[in-house]
Amino acid sequence: MERFERQIILPELGREGQQKLKMAKVLVAGAGGLGCPAILYLAAAGVGTIGIADGDQVEASNLNRQVLFGFNNIGSSKAAAAAKFISERYPDTQVNVYDRFLTVENIPKILPFYDIVIDGTDSFATRYMLNDASVLFGKPLVYGAIYRYEGQIALFNTGKGSANYRDLFPKIPDSGEIANCSEAGVLGVLPGIFGTLQATEAIKWITGIGELLINKVLFCNLKNHSFYEIDLVPSNEAQKNRPATLEVFLKTDYSVNCQTVSDIGWNEALESSNPKSSVFIDIREPDEIPRWSNSQCLEIPYGELEEKAELFSEETSIFLFCQHGIRSRPAAVELRKTLKRNNIYSVTGGVEHPDSPVKQLI
Amino acid sequence: MFGIVAEKTGTGNLTIPFVDDTDKLYLLLLEKHPQLDGIKFAIAVNRQIVHQNTSLAQNDEIALLPPFSGG
């Protein structure tokens, strides 16, 4: 019995398909909820080379869905831990570790080596950057993204006439508008299903089996088992939002595009604060600790913010903070709209941020 | 409706009075569900993504598709 017997006997796959998998080089961007199952099934299927790019470390809160990691991996590099898991079980797969976040500078050095990319990233900034790079380098991109109980998957950029992410969502949304997993919550099996679907599309593309999700996007809601497939047409207009050349790409600042202008770091907020013209507002509930005893800081829970914030004059800069900077960001976006002014900020990372003066007191 | 759009409107499906085109549809949605203000989503008419204002016919199926960032 050989390792790949059960898939080699598939008439569409055969020894030829297995050889194609062995020769294939797949880059998995993000070893998170989507990346973990994708990596696992690609390696199990006999993909010869897998690149794993992730600059993050494993946290306990990852373990409900990032199935390549266990308690013993907490604090270690995700890319390295995932590579170790795979290498121990499938020594016939070559694993390349990139234990750093993808950037406009490093993508052009990594991407050209691979045949196809799997998008398992968790921010709009990286998703748009990866999409634009895959177009510039002519690499197919297996897109997948999740939200709570729902997911989206597509195969972008497989050649001439093939749509990409910009044809679906032409421009980067403000990061405050849509929550990511850590803010919105996610059922652990959801990325398991979508990451596995992404691996399926990659394997189908490599081996030439079946119909691919080209110029289509599949939306799925696990709560009511609904699958909804829509057609996508490449649009010249939408593509104008994308850097047209590598030179422009290298100068594109995706992080700034994605950040809402309302974000501010503790150091900058503290430096620019002034008792007469600015105020810090702790929007946490009264029982959240540690508290900040500072004459410049008021305590107004999120729910009461809107009515009380009108008390401040238009000239007063408002710095909102919470425990992790998660609630304060939408709060700042909302308050800017309500008060129709822009000198309202969300302090990045909140009380738990290393630069936070609140944390340093305990 | 999907994702945050379904959450904000509290439903996955809506039947609405006939409007001529997708721009008018958007305004009607915003009027009925002001909480959608500022939420970005793509629109599909009869399962086809549209980026420009598109005329609608009776019984067209419209999908409101917000982007997801989670991975």
TrEMBL record, chain A:
Transmembrane residue ranges: none
InterPro entries xrefs: Rhodanese-like_dom, Rhodanese-like_dom_sf, ThiF/MoeB/HesA, ThiF_NAD_FAD-bd, Ubiquitin-activating_enz
Start and end residues of each Rhodanese domain: 274-359
GO CC annotation terms, alphabetical: cytosol
GO MF terms held by the record: nucleotidyltransferase activity; sulfotransferase activity; thiosulfate-cyanide sulfurtransferase activity; ubiquitin-like modifier activating enzyme activity
One Pfam family this sequence matches: Rhodanese
Family the entry assigns: Belongs to the HesA/MoeB/ThiF family.
Protein name as it appears in the record: HesA/MoeB/ThiF family protein
Protein species of origin: Gaoshiqia sediminis
Taxonomic lineage: Bacteria, Pseudomonadati, Bacteroidota, Bacteroidia, Marinilabiliales
